[in-house]
């Protein structure tokens, strides 16, 4: 979820958990990246017998029943796919192509925007890395709101100026042009995602029958100014891997957000969700759709009615997979309470707490964070 950089100052990450290796030069996976049975319990959907559970629902968000359909999908899966979402193929192709360009830069260029040990933005390994004994076959780039160019200037001010001072160098020029192009595309994508997220939020709150007088409806109010929603765009890159069965793209986790909107590139399988009793289920990319998954904060607000779905990403031998996750959450100062409407379970399952407290608990305890919030 989008949090200010200074937020993680009490939870610094060690360098080995920030710096990705040069994946492209690897003919085999190093011991540091070799997982034991990483892809256990793989459970292809075509082997399922229960037809109702056979696929993550695709919901047309303009459908008059969208809210109802979302409710059922969230209760059953904690995940759904959306069509008719208004993000054009052109925008998605553009953002994907710029993302590929960024990750295709030589490692030493990407290292110039490496996330700091206390930081939230920039290039690096997953922030969940310290919680696992093995490293992931992954490199990512986290962008917060505002313009990407502004972040770039903040992240590497001296080099940025150098680029303008010595423009005769062709590679440097290429980087400047790429940077500006990427910035525009990333800004545009975030703006579109924000609009879509606001719409989805309305449908989700309606699906839980939370009355419009409740404070949660008001957090999207733009007059709140800088204290508006916390969002982040996470560019995920999974280079092709010599030994996918013993590697992990992104280890099993739940998202801290209210919900996440995920775009999976091309026709490359990678996302898996965990369903009790069934194991790992493939959520392959489907043209024209985006994936939406329930995060921890919506799990709390829905009083555990919506599962915060455990998911992971696997890698493959031939293809370089890209995905883009847009995390959407309430402002850090927002006090969350489980909603106890007639659809929720009896009594509150969680205590009330500020979003900032939950984000800190997550940074410290990862998947055990919820046990610090649960009542009874
Ligand atoms: O790449 C994927 O399919 C999953 C990404 C993800 O779970 C995340 O960015 O939190
Ligand atoms: Fe995730």
From TrEMBL:
InterPro entries: DIOX_N, IPNS-like_FE2OG_OXY, IPNS-like_sf, Iron_ascorbate_oxido_reductase, Oxoglu/Fe-dep_dioxygenase_dom. SUPFAM superfamilies: Clavaminate synthase-like. GO terms for molecular function: metal ion binding; oxidoreductase activity. Pfam families: 2OG-FeII_Oxy (PF03171), DIOX_N (PF14226). Residues 229-330 form the Fe2OG dioxygenase domain. It comes from the Eukaryota. Keywords: Iron, Metal-binding, Oxidoreductase. Belongs to the iron/ascorbate-dependent oxidoreductase family. This is Fe2OG dioxygenase domain-containing protein.
